[in-house]
Amino acid sequence: MSPQYYDVIVIGAGHAGCEAAAAAANLGSKTLLVTMDMTKMAQMSCNPAMGGIAKGQLVREIDALGGYSGIITDKTMIQFRMLNRSKGPAMWSPRAQCDRVLFSIEWRKILENLQHLDFWQDNVDSLIIENQKVKGIKTHLGIEFFAQTVILTAGTFLNGLIHVGKSQTVGGRISEPASTGITEQLKSLGMETDRMKTGTPARIDGRTIDFSKLIKQEGDFPIEKFSYLPHINEFLPQQSCWITYTNENVHNILKTGFNESPLFNGTIKSIGPRYCPSIETKLVTFSDKDKHQLFIEPEGLTTNEYYLNGFSSSLPLEVQYQAIRNINGLENAKIYRPGYAIEYDFFQPTQLLPTLESKIIENLYFAGQVNGTTGYEEAAAQGLMAGINAHRKIFSNKNFILARDEAYIGVLIDDLITKGVDEPYRMFTSRAEYRILLRQDNADFRLTQKSFEIGLANSERKNILQFKQNAIKEFVDFANQFLVKADEINPFLETFNSSLLQHSVKLSQLILRPELSLNSFLHFLKPYEKIAKESPINISEIIEAVEIEIKYKGYIEREQIIAEKLRRLEHIEIRENMDYERIHSLSTEGRQKLSKIRPQTIGQASRISGVSPSDINILLIYLGK
Fold first, then answer.
1. In DSSP terms, which residues pair with 118 in a beta bridge?
2. Cβ-contact 361, 132 below 8 angstroms
3. Which of 55, 376, 425, 621 has a CA positioned 20 to 30 A from the CA of residue 72?
4. Is residue 276 predicted with pLDDT exceeding 90?
5. CB atoms < 10 A from the CB of 233, how many?
6. Is the previous residue joined to 222 through a cis bond, with omega within 30 degrees of 0?
7. Is residue 401 very low, low, confident or very high in pLDDT (cuts 50, 70, 90)?
């Protein structure tokens, strides 16, 4: 086979790899996606769900930028829920249970129809690197592919090792081979690497579950979408999830296997996710609890397989089996496969630039779990950004970077490259300083125009955004001007136990009342009927945005002012060759951290753990600022 040349090569077709390959190809790069198995693109290796707290915001941001995770989630969702509805809109987070098989099939359909994207099924054994610059890849079959940029999205496959009790199997997922060689090669070239651990629970045969003993958890109606595009008008049949609990008998059975648990006997030395612990870890950490909540979730419309959320484990098979059979509703349960833990290699992300390009090996990008993150959504977001920047490195040499006040994606990447990771990184709303600005409803306002300008988001997305912006402005202007008469509105207010009016007031003033929603006033909104008729998107999306803008205007403006003040630090650049050791007034830890991470701006420097406010002031003085 003669040498093949590409602009971008993507290693791995998980969530990061799929978004990376799609972004690079859609921008015009000749792209190759290499995967071990073409039938498992964007495989949901663990829970078959997308979104959740802060993760739902990431999916909507990916969609606003022109990625595909939101579209495919809408096509394959079998249950939708908006989490945190009882809190303010900054905390609302969409979550969808998906059909695992259909999710992967839909991704493949999209990828195989992209004009500039080729595929190769094989394992990548090594990278072709010359003078600390990547030139291509070499596969297990001995074939070399050359490229100007390479994106590594190997997930949990780099030296993956699976644990079930004392049993150990080399693999990247159960029944799938691991990938070897790349870690050792990159380590020899100076890259820092370490091990992490994650896990997954047993899968249950739904025919053996007694659902009459479980608590039914239905999804939300009406169903909302992740994608801002209007293409999905009908959804798959919606399914229920189910709730049950462990008990003291279950806990006692689990404890009998602790001496054979790789988590406790020293076999696993790497760090697992604190926010998604195994059931055995829960028993130790929360020893005072006599029960733990479990969610039994369907894996699809055409399968009997159920996911036992909350029961991740690497205990011996027999212990898992007996414990499961002592859970209410699962007394006769049969399992398809046991839960297991997996250890894998990752690379400390402080070795990356904000574009996700390596500081050590030029033109090599990293995205997903190889950067120490956990979760499909975090991986997909990194993949999208790596794909964009790999393309732009070749064709424009202009970086595409999102700030912390522009996107959760910006928070994610900035956290990784400035703070590094000592446990699998998971996105939370609490990680974002500007949660009111970074809501799930306004990702298109924040990002679609930026993406359109670089050629990724198409004109359809831009036109929908412009219509939405104009419609919201028209609604808000009307609400700020329209006078509601007391005698007309008071009977209506009585039904909500809301204070009666003594005189006419602006409609926007009534909307500010916490007990009232904008939907209550639709018959007063003269633009409503016209806009509803013309709208290319669901009118409820516009109504929700109008209400948030009116009710939270003061909070939004205050946060924008704070963000603008702090953003000034992001524009103060630091020389790449800055010798921090010569600045003796810096703290010792500050000098060490700055020398290691080498931030590009004062803003980045200020977020590095161990760099104090006084260190930042010294740097500003040193830079003449």
1. 32
2. yes
3. 425
4. no
5. 7
6. yes
7. very high
To the question of pTM greater than 0.85 for the whole model, the response is yes
- For 352-379, the pLDDT digits (tens) are 999 999 999 999 999 999 999 999 999 9
Packed helices 55-64 and 443-454: angle between N→C axes, nearest 10 degrees: 40
Question: How many other β-carbons are positioned within 10 Å of the β-carbon of residue 331?
Answer: 13
Phi–psi pair at 623, nearest 5 degrees = -85, 0
pLDDT, tens digit, 9 for 90 and up, residues 48-87: 999 999 999 999 999 999 999 999 999 999 999 999 999 9
Contact (CB, 8 A) for 437 and 559? yes
**CA–CA distance, 517 with 495 (Å, rounded to integer):** 13
Residue 2 has pLDDT above 80, yes or no: no
The whole-angstrom separation of Cα 165 and Cα 167 is 5
**Could you give the CA distance from residue 365 to residue 518 in angstroms, rounded to a whole number?**
46
| Residues 614, 594: Cα–Cα separation, whole Å | 14
Q: Which residue has the tokens 């004392």?
A: 166
End-to-end CA distance of the chain: 57
Say which DSSP state 307 is in.
E
Residues 6+ apart with CB under 8 A from 103: 42, 44, 48, 72, 73, 76
Backbone Cα Rg of the chain = 26
Q: Which residues contact 137 (CB under 8 A, 6 or more apart)?
A: 9, 11, 34, 124, 126, 127, 128, 144, 145, 147, 150
Please calculate the CA angle 196-51-72 and round it to the nearest 5 degrees.
Answer: 105
Reported as half-sphere exposure (CB side, CA atoms, 13 A), residue 528 has a value of 15
Residue type, 140: H
Distance CA 56, CA 566 (A): 26
- Domain annotation for the chain: domains and CATH numbers: 4-197+344-454 (3.50.50.60), 459-558 (1.10.10.1800), 571-622 (1.10.150.570)
Angle at 75 between CA 71 and CA 79, to 5 degrees: 110
Separation of alpha carbons 311 and 530, rounded Å: 51
Pairing state between β 161-164 and 305-309: unpaired
